[in-house]
């Protein structure tokens, strides 16, 4: 049976990004329709975009791989005024990121890249030069419950730490910052126009160090940042304490910032001997070459699309309740926990 999905907001990226048609969805009979009147499911990457459609006799779903778009842990949520429950598939329902490779090779991938090529890139650069490619965020806190080894809500944001590290490095040995909205003239420039991955590799061509912390920390949340830094010939400065990255990278590879103050990070990088920096980068490069042989990125993304298709099928199986919350069952249990 065909399943017709209407996007409640323009979705630029991901499985339901504008103009994207994936085999895993079409094989499940899932199509995107331009008119909500023709849809079975109203989909968004952020719950707020569903509000204007809440009284319609439709099923509702939120799917996103961006940790900031939706912070709901429950797979089924009831909201006041909605005709049906909202089904959720996001980072916190633990069925989006299940390995470290989802973003690997999403840019200008080099499938046959060799260790010698990567080491030549690193060695050709001026020693101990650092760059960071990130815009400035004034408000960054994201409080989340359920992070391993913690009790109670935890701020999983890394933007503030990343920005503080950049400030500390700017005041010390120096760093070039590329990104929008930085105060006090801290940035050397904004991101240049063009395909982002190619622009990134071009910007990093003259730097041995790339401060590339993720925006957030959460199990298996590994974006393209670490992979791209290594591909560009840079020693990554990274926070890997919570995302299982040490199942892939050795502990003495990228420079770990977890457990250190921004000032300690800046001082350690400034004092790092050239041979240690080169040895650390070589371990990162060896990891990239080794992992890249199996092409895990495309495999991970194809598996995600299958999970998304199954998610949409489950949403379609939900009865339309006409705005009356069911008296029992998973949706009622979820509502009781709200």
Automatic annotation (TrEMBL):
Residues 162-277 form the Fucosyltransferase C-terminal domain. GO terms for molecular function: alpha-(1->3)-fucosyltransferase activity. One of its GO terms (cellular component) is membrane. The keyword Iron-sulfur does not apply. InterPro entries: Glyco_tran_10_C, Glyco_trans_10, GT10-like_C_sf. The keyword Glycosyltransferase applies. Keywords: Glycosyltransferase, Transferase. Pfam families: Glyco_transf_10 (PF00852). Belongs to the glycosyltransferase 10 family. This is Fucosyltransferase C-terminal domain-containing protein. It comes from Prosthecomicrobium pneumaticum.
């Amino acid at each position: 049976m065909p399943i017709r999905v209407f996007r409640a907001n323009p979705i630029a990226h991901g499985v339901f990004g504008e103009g994207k048609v994936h085999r895993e969805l079409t094989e499940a009979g899932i199509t995107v329709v331009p008119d909500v009147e023709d849809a079975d499911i109203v989909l968004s990457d952020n719950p707020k975009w569903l509000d204007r459609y809440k009284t319609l006799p439709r099923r509702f779903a939120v799917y996103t791989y961006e940790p900031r778009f939706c912070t709901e842990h429950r797979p089924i949520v009831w909201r006041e005024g909605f005709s049906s429950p909202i089904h959720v598939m996001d980072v916190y329902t633990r069925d989006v990121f299940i390995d470290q490779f989802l973003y690997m090779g999403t840019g200008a991938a080099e499938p046959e890249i060799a260790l010698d090529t990567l080491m030549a890139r690193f060695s050709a650069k001026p020693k101990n030069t650092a760059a960071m490619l990130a815009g400035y965020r004034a408000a960054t806190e994201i409080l989340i419950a359920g992070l391993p080894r913690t009790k109670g809500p935890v701020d999983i944001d890394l933007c503030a730490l990343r920005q503080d590290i950049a400030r500390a490095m700017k005041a010390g040995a120096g760093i070039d910052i590329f990104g929008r909205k930085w105060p006090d003239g801290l940035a050397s420039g904004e991101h240049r126009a063009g395909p982002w991955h190619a622009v990134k590799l071009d910007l990093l061509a003259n730097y041995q160090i790339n401060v590339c912390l993720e925006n957030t920390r959460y199990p298996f949340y590994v974006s393209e940042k670490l992979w791209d830094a290594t591909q560009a010939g840079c020693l990554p400065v990274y926070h890997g304490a919570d995302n299982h990255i040490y199942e892939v990278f050795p502990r003495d590879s990228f420079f770990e910032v977890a457990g250190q103050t921004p000032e300690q990070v800046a001082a350690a990088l400034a004092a790092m001997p050239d041979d240690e920096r080169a040895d650390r980068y070589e371990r990162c490069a060896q990891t990239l070459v080794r992992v890249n042989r199996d092409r895990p990125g495309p495999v991970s993304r194809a598996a995600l699309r299958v999970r998304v298709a199954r998610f949409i099928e489950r949403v379609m199986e939900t009865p339309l309740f006409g705005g009356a919350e069911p008296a029992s069952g998973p949706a009622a249990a979820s509502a009781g926990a709200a």
